[in-house]
Amino acid sequence: MSLPGPADLAAIRLTLALAATTTVFLLLLGTPVAWWLARSRSRATGVIGALVALPLVLPPTVIGFYLLLLLGPDGPLGHATSALGLGYLPFTFAGLVTGSVVYSFPFAVQPLQNAFAALGSKPLEAAATLRAGPVDRFLHVVLPLTRRGFVSAAVLGFTHTVGEFGVVLMLGGNIPDKTRVISVQIFDHVEAMEYAEAHWLAGTMVLLSFLVLFLLYRRKPDA
Amino acid sequence: MPDSDSGLELRLSLSHPGFTLDVDLDLPGHGVSALFGPSGSGKTTLLRAIAGLEKNASGTIRINGEQWLDGRWSLPTHKRALGYVFQDANLFDHLSVRGNLEFGFRRAGTARQTHFERTVDLLDIGPMLTRRPATLSGGERQRVAIARALVTEPRLLLLDEPLAALDHARKREILPYLERLHTELDIPMLYVSHAPDEVAQLADHLVLLHQGTVLAHGPLRETLARLDLSEAFGDEHTVVLDTRIGLHDDDDHLSRLDFTGGSILVARRPEATGSGLRCRIDARDVSLTLHASEDSSILNILPAVVGAIADTRNPANVLVRLDAGGTPLLARITRRSLRRLGLAPGMAVWAQIKSVALLG
Fold first, then answer.
1. B18 shares its domain with B148
2. Nearest partner of B241 among B216, B224, B217, B218, judged by Cα
3. Any chain B CB within 8 A of the CB of A141?
4. A90-109 pLDDT per residue, tens
5. What pTM was computed for the model?
6. What are residue B67's DSSP bridge partners?
């Protein structure tokens, strides 16, 4: 087995940066959506819930394809980003983050939504009668009591982003150092019949993913 | 109508699907007011609305001069200086007992450390401060919940059936603490309950709720003895006497309790002569005779005058209101006895009291 080359290391670095950035956005955007889905009695929760879950069932290429159209020069979001001076997002790191957030959204929202639903409104009511305002309640009651939900959301969002391929390929292409992530790099190795290099990267991913999931599921419920 | 700056002015309405609460109440700004009624009568909803936990309440809430609700404008719950004790304690599991107490204490700003310590003593929380709520018994959790509400020095304490989730032994464990709050703290309390014995023990003022409206309210003694409300109490008619220990008889191990219009004898009490003692006399424990019986084993036989007579849920029985020298009593007797004795309002009778429950 050969050691990883500079292209492999660059792909690993890029993947970790992408997954970390994506996780931050997943938690920032997923928390209010999950909160609303868990607590609103609005009928719109059905529609939004289905939309959020859509990436679970769609082929990643479908998501990547539509994002490419939406974010491209002829897409409405493309017009918007261009007007804001951000340029066009496809084939950039920002584009990959956007695609990854959409693709991994249900993996972050669902653990949070379950945690918020299980929490119920009673601890919040108790906190309100003890002089805690809305932000105070979220920080000092909701966060500590749903910590496990946040950890699950972050871990699943991170690992799922590391493992994506279709969306990245459609939206990011295969630009070294910019959009070439581990999964694409493995694909390239296999295409070039470089099985030893492919093994090295693929095997590492299997091991790391297993370790992370093992740590996540090993924890006792309510510990 | 009480002075608007020293009382609880509660005029509010709200509706849920299938339920409407419509309440217009002026309650005293001190002592314990019990909200009593069957389940579904709106007791808890009223309490939650006073706390600002019911979103669509509208009307007026003024607590000792402070406006909490005005039309649709509502002061947010966290800005209302209240303490709320939930039916199931509702402690924060991620905090220790001390953390739970300090949660509100820190945020209340004006609360004093001496008051914190006094409350911890009052409810005997000291030994549990470092424990987690999950390791406490039901009774202990409820004591912590009461202390947590009290350390914020609220202007109003709201208690939502704090004993309902507890078994009989645990209730006995908590009641003395509630009794202590009553006598040692000067905070108005609203106490939701469907248990007549709790109400008789703790309340000064009684509010009867039925299907979201106020059926009646007034001072506890008078309201309990009202025959027109007998339906609301089911079969648990009772009166409450506020007595003072007049004499201890150490030969027979008895104590004499004096009240307006008479006295009763009970088993020797540990309290000193002169101490106040509340007791409860259930209507089913009072029987009537036309002559003072000289050969009865019953100790407490009081002269009384028959007042009104009312039907009870059970057609075999009637409820007789008596006036024992100014103190109202209720006797539940059979319809046959009523006819046999020829009882009618204004008649002088003797009330034989079989048992007296002492409420401490």
1. yes
2. B224
3. yes
4. 888 999 999 999 999 999 99
5. 0.83
6. B62
